[in-house]
Structure prediction request, 661 residues.
Amino acid sequence: MVVLILTILASGCGGGSSSDSAATTTTTTTTDTTTTTTTGTPPTISSFTPLTGVESTSVTIFGADFSSTASDNTVKFNGTTAVVTAATSSWLVTTVPTGATTGPITVTTTGGTATSSADFTVTAPATYTTVLFTATTITVPTTCYTGYVYVVNSSVVITSTLTIQPGAIIKFKPGGYLQVNAGGSIIADGGSAATPIIFTSIKDDAHGGDTNGDGNATSPAAGDWEFIRLNTSGSVFNYCGFGYGGNKAIYYGTLTLYYVSATVTNCTFAHNGTVLGLTANSTLDAGTALAGTVITGNMFYDNTLPLRINTTFSLDDSNRFDNSGAQPNKYNGILVYGQDVLSAVTWSATKVPFVIRGAVVIGSGGSVTLAPNVVVKIQPNGYLQANAGGTINANAGSASTPITFTSIKDDAHGGDTNYDGSITTAAAGDWEFIRIMSNGSTFNQCRFYYGGNQSNYGTLTLSSVSSTVTNNIFAHNGTVDGLTANPALDAGTATAATVITGNTFYDNKLPIRINTTFGLDDSNTFNNGGLQPNKYNGILVWGQDLGSSLTWSATKVPFVVRGNLVIYSPLALTLGNNVVVKFQSAYGYLYLANGASLNQGTNTFLTSIKDDAHGGDTNEDGATSPASGDWYGMKNYNAYNTSPWCYVVTGMLYYTTTCSW
Prediction:
């Protein structure tokens, strides 16, 4: 027997097709005119999967120019008409009809008919023996055998080992479930995609036949049965299929790992879950699973919510989240149950986004490494935080494979994960922040979109630590107006080894804040090709004593000093050519103490925050004009003499209290 749920993992795709009919053309001739009407483009079939199956097997046909209205496509299996259950212009889902025989598949639309170049093989159904689970407990080692259909009437609690052989089928009546308690385990190893173990509904005639004996009177649907819940570690599911479960989606997923570790590999989860929303439990719920859990090579399609994980184990890119492009899950993401990360965890899945619910806090000895092309969506009030001893390693390597941190409402990155179409759109402040509180984190070729809802922290905040932040994009961040708000990248308390180069900032409230422990070159950009500049378009400098000799070379926007700059001997501040430094406060000043120096390039300016003629309208007020007294000035002091507050090496000072310019 060919089994529905796992045939997609096992089968190759059918051959290509020819289009049997060109677009239909109708010619009508009257005495005076001739009218020609073309009714459509002919469809083509590129492949189908599976290649074989019994009657009622689900088949997905891939191609082009199908009708997106299911009823407008006529599908035949060697001449026998089938029912199309789902349709887009590039794929159709249908079932093998009663009476079908081996032969080609045809698809007919108003544009013509396409015929597959490969035959679909209709196989005879296998003969199964039906066994009822009459006991509600399994307390001794028990085996479910190949060639049998086992029917679960209600609940079965397992406290010993239940071994399920390849090809065995477990069907559940409404309300039925399996629960593994202390001392128990399920060892369900199908061995290969050709002999999967199936967990499905009593109404599912495609697996094991018409077990409930009602013919076509009932059809399986999501939520027909409850769940399989593992309350102790050690169970194995390999080459299994899970279909039409999840009726307790607000409590347990179809397969739930409840504070245990388990191995779930090469399985297919389809048509599960009844509760809508990202708060529902997922089809495979590993939200409380323990370290040692392995989830690889699985396929999830046509479920409400496919998968939930936590931060105790890694997830690679081997799992799939639709059946070859058809029937994706509704809320198509990997929900991450926010909790502490205390070990090295890697997230590599790229086919759907990771969705953080709550806070993911990385503790001492913990790390989160993100692979290129990973998308992380963060729900409202969600954030990531690396505490002392924890790190985030997000090095995408290339602009073509960025790592993206964004809003759950951002359909442009990772798709419509919240499954609301165009009802909601992403906006600044949709999520909170990423806060780094330990040295050593790296962000390279990352994208930070729609964050900054927390006025205490920037979208990416370096809190008294050093990090490497290079070649990233920060866009649409921040909700609080003003130059006192926290910026998209807040390095206002970062330490000396911090590197910030090659980044692009646009459409943020305030792009960046730095301090005087590290320099800043001219490699960062502050709009996207001249479009969407930041609202308060400057580099905010948290005024303090210089920690070392620094160079400021950024020229695209001004440096904006909040407070004072004090430089002690033998340190020096070097300003590159064309640098503008604006002082925000009337009491702000630059003080060179005991032989410290200010080295200025050509065409440098020290001026007022209100001076729009130099560095633009940095305070975003349009109407105010600079005036004498907007800031205090600059003084060079040493033990032998004092200079006036209007001391200048080169360059110009404007609008000070003590100088006449």
